């Protein structure tokens, strides 16, 4: 089940392979100096097709079954499941170090590894000839064209989406700036129309308090005591009732002769 799920999710994979012999790289000027292109795709949930070609005289092919994937996993010792090993296989073929090693005759091996020090993946290939080779190269060319067209369509959609997002962002920015200007205008109007009475009130109150303090300090201690203890002040504070004052005034108006006659 793991292999089935992994093969269904296997995306078409293209890459460049450097051709070499078992004894070393091909010499310059050799026909094998031409670059090779490899292509891997899932034929169905149980098979992966791997094709390598120089679009000239060398085209090789191999169909990997789920059992072949299991055997490769056992050989490399990578991954605890088939899906994990499939991820490692994809990462290895996607690296920059993929080689096509010719061993003589009509066979070759596609060798790759994820990074330095990691186990190598080796896929045995069989050389094709005649119509089979032409069919594979033709199908690969059409697949490359469809893939390029699809990628260009995705890129165009992303570019259009980016343009729309930039327009939306510009509109939101303009709206935000407009609202900020409105807010600043309202704040300025409130500051201008606010009455400034508090400062005058504080100044008047302050002047009154200062005058009272100055008048109080202008009077010496003795003057304040005299003013507090003076008779007029005490009389004003201890005034007699009205009926008593009338009787006293009447007694003062009597003559001495009137007193003797009585």
From TrEMBL:
Q: Where is this region: Disordered?
A: 213-244
The cross-references to PANTHER family, in alphabetical order and at most eight, read:
U2 SMALL NUCLEAR RIBONUCLEOPROTEIN AUXILIARY FACTOR-LIKE PROTEIN
Q: What is this protein called?
A: Uncharacterized protein
The major lineage groups are: Eukaryota, Viridiplantae, Streptophyta, Embryophyta, Tracheophyta
């Amino acid at each position: 089940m793991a292999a089935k799920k992994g093969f269904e999710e296997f995306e078409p994979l293209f890459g460049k392979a450097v051709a070499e012999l078992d004894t070393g790289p091909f010499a310059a000027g050799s026909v094998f100096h031409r670059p090779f292109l490899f292509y891997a795709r899932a034929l169905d949930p149980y098979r992966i097709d791997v094709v390598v070609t120089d679009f000239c005289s060398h085209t090789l092919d191999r169909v990997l079954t789920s059992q072949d994937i299991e055997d490769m996993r056992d050989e490399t010792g990578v991954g605890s499941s088939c899906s994990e090993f499939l991820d490692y296989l994809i990462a290895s073929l996607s690296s920059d170090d993929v080689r096509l090693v010719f061993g003589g005759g009509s066979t070759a091996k596609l060798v790759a590894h994820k990074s330095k020090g990691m186990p190598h993946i080796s896929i045995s290939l069989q050389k094709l000839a005649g119509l089979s080779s032409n069919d594979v190269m033709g199908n690969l060319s059409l697949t490359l064209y469809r893939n390029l067209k699809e990628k260009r369509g995705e890129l165009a959609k992303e570019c259009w989406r980016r343009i729309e997002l930039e327009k939306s962002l510009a509109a939101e920015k303009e709206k935000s700036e407009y609202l900020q200007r409105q807010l600043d205008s309202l704040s300025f109007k409130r500051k201008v129309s606010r009455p400034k009475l508090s400062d005058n009130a504080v100044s008047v109150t302050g002047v009154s308090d200062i005058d009272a303090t100055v008048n109080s300090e202008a009077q010496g201690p003795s003057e304040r005591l005299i003013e507090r203890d003076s008779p007029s002040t005490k009389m004003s504070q201890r005034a007699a009732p009205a009926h008593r004052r009338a009787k006293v005034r009447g007694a003062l108006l009597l003559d001495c002769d009137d007193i003797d006659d009585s």
